[in-house]
Amino acid sequence: MAKKKKKKAKKNEGEPEITATSSVARERAEPGPPPKMKTKPYEQEMRSLHGELVAMQEWVKSSGAKICIVFEGRDTAGKGGTIKRITERVSPRVFRVVALTAPTERERSQMYLQRYVPHFPAAGEVVIFDRSWYNRAGVEPVMGFCTPEETKRFLEGAPAFERAMVDAGILLIKYWLEVSPGEQTRRLEARIHDPRKIWKLSDMDLKSYGRWYDYSRARDAMFAATDTAWAPWFIAHTDDKKRGRLNIISHLLSAVPYEPLVPREISLPKRQQRGKYREPELPLRLIPTPF
């Protein structure tokens, strides 16, 4: 028996030993993406974050804070969906979403950044840009809407422009949402076949789809020029939309120095008596009720 064991050991000499421990170590060294998040835990976490966003809103109102949030990223990366989840439980009077259309002839004749300035937050406001002045660093040069010289001037001037914003008391938070090529293809194909999403598929999306690496180069140049100490870029991977939204909102809450809400005791007052009020006999037009 001893000889057989010795012979077996010699036969395996130099070969890696396959054990549970080495398998776990390999998984830790090369972690894959976590599984897609389920809806129930996602909604539970989102409910908690929505409560914190309301607390942040009340702090913004009471403190007079000015917050500007910029969302940029790949097509289909989930900017609109993330913004919707941020704003769905807060007041539109405090949280404003700015999604500018193509510039008019008059705006094209202005200084490039001029049309964005009127939308900046006043005291007690949170302004969210669904795409921003960074069009000049991404879609415009890639699709040929501006010259290389115009992009170069923008990248040189943007840090100083954003420094002026911060010096004026604006808390500027910039997010870049990144999605993989395969997931982008899947989402675009889903838009083609879904009547609820077909409006999201513009001619520009179709033209830009084939220019993945042109956009990558433009993104890299933008990061290199405009990732500053006073206005850094924060990158979120959003192949899993649910995880991406939760991660972004959690980060946003950590970036704003808000104070938690102090619970108030609230009770409904008594409703007045009917008195002499009677329902009028009017020819009211009720809507149909097929459901």
Task: Give the terminus-to-terminus CA distance.
Answer: 81 Å
- Calculate Rg over CA atoms: 27 Å
Given the C-alpha coordinates, what overall shape results? Answer: globular
- Report the uncertain regions: 1-28
Secondary-structure element pattern, one letter each:
HHHEHEHEHHEHHHEH
Q: What is the CATH top level name of one domain? A: Alpha Beta
The count of β-strands is 5
Structural class: alpha/beta
Helical region count? Answer: 11
CATH fold-level assignment of one domain: Rossmann fold
Mean pLDDT: 90
The name of the CATH architecture of one domain is: 3-Layer(aba) Sandwich
Largest sheet: 5 strands, parallel
Helix-residue proportion: 40-55%
Strand content: 5-15%
Order of adjacent strands in the largest pleated sheet:
2-3-1-4-5
Q: Please, what is the CATH homologous superfamily of one domain? A: P-loop containing nucleotide triphosphate hydrolases
Short descriptors:
46% helix; globular; alpha/beta; five-stranded parallel beta sheet; Rossmann fold; 11 helices; disordered N terminus
Q: Mind explaining what this structure looks like?
A:
- With 291 residues, this protein is α/β, with parallel strands linked by helices.
- 46% of the residues lie in helices and 11% in strands.
- Helix 5 (105-108) links the parallel strand 2 (95-98) and strand 3 (125-130).
- The protein is globular and about 75 Å long.
Question: Care to give the gist of this entry?
Answer:
With 291 residues, the protein is of the alpha/beta class.
Helix and strand arrangement:
Blueprint: H1 2-11, H2 20-29, H3 39-63, E1 66-73, H4 79-87, E2 95-98, H5 105-108, E3 125-130, H6 139-143, H7 148-167, E4 170-178, H8 181-193, H9 203-209, H10 212-226, E5 233-237, H11 241-255
Parallel strand pairs: 1-3, 1-4, 2-3, 4-5
Helix pairs in contact: 3-11, 4-11, 7-10
